[in-house]
Amino acid sequence: MTSPESPDAAGMTFEEFRQSFYYGDRADMQFKYWARMSDRDAADTIAALLHKLGEAFDTGDFEVVRQLAFQAQVDAYAPAETPEPEVDDAPFTPLQADLADLRLALISAGGVFEVDDDPMGPNGPTQEECLPLIKDFLRGSPTLSLIPVDTPLERLTARHPGYDATTAQRDINTVFPLTHLRAIAGEGRVRLTDEHYAFTGATSHTRLRKEVAPRWAEHMAARDVDAAFLVAT
Amino acid sequence: MCHGSVGLVARALEAAGVPTVSVFVRAFRHTAVKLRVPRVLVTPHLMGRTIGPVNDGARQRQVVEAALRLLEDAKGPGTLSEFAPPTS
């Protein structure tokens, strides 16, 4: 308890509380969207989540909690303005053959990498440690991690300053569905390239658009990638 | 940011002659529209679980299958499809 005489006696405003989830002292990528909401909407959302959580203690039905969080996220991220540039073209390449005859590459923006091939070096930050580095990520160029198709899944991990990658650490298929693509390839319905890819999507869009993405596209085309399956996070 | 990054990579690949399909969560559907991402499957999932919830292999597989169908079936740019779980 804070005593009335202490420097913290004034406590914090509700705005400060909800903002603290966005890279503040309560940084939580699951709920950082509260910073985007009005006080009223955030208060109503938090109250509703707690109410449904209380019900779920009795019913065991946590799906209603998830649905509520999902809808709140959708509403919070439906902005009037987005950082993406306006585009005036829409590139589109038709498939050149049946899917079964194409070599498909998986590309995830979920910050996936092999445990001994950390794109930030052997002592790269943990998921928690990378959150304060968000501005550095957003100014920098992304590194493309190369992941051989036969990599055991237990050798894959993820780190990302824009979403809670502990989810991907629990199950990499949430953002890098190699298990399922291998199964479909095993049925002969698609072919997979020898090499698959991941990067951290929280990055400089200017660098990505002008330099990095065209270079990656050139690399992949040269590696006989016929089609690509991309996953945003 | 992340969904925009995928959109930019997808656009670069298409421009280089590599067809793509991208999977987005619904919270960032507007990003796909704004960037005119070539083929996009939108999933009703929380951020960070684009393909499906942890250890829900059945849902994840359905999403992957739906994305591959979109890759095959899309006739032109800006094709956006909302993932709908199959009804049993």
Give a structural overview.
The complex is a heterodimer of chains A (233) and B (88). By secondary structure, chain A is α/β, with parallel strands linked by helices. Chain A has helices at 14-19, 39-59, 63-76, 127-130, 134-139, 166-170, 178-186, 205-222, and strands spanning 103-108, 112-114, 145-148, 156-158, 191-192, 195-198, 227-231. Chain A has two domains: 10-76, no CATH class; 99-231, no CATH class. Chain A has eight helices and seven strands, in the order H-H-H-E-E-H-H-E-E-H-H-E-E-H-E. In chain A, strands 1, 3, 5, 6 and 7 form a five-stranded mixed sheet that branches. Chain A has a two-stranded antiparallel sheet with strand order 2-4. In chain A, helix 2 (39-59) runs antiparallel to helix 3. The mean pLDDT of chain A is 94. The mean pLDDT of chain B is 95. Chain B has a three-stranded parallel sheet with strand order 1-2-3, with helices on both faces. Chain B is globular. Chain B has one domain. The longest helix of chain B is centred in the C-terminal third of the chain and has 17 residues, at 57-73. By secondary structure, chain B is α/β, with parallel strands linked by helices. In chain B, helix 3 (57-73) links the parallel strand 2 and strand 3. Chain B is built from three helices and three strands; from the N terminus they run H-E-H-E-H-E. Chains A and B meet through helix 3, helix 6, helix 7, helix 8 and strand 7 of A and helix 1, strand 1, helix 2 and helix 3 of B.
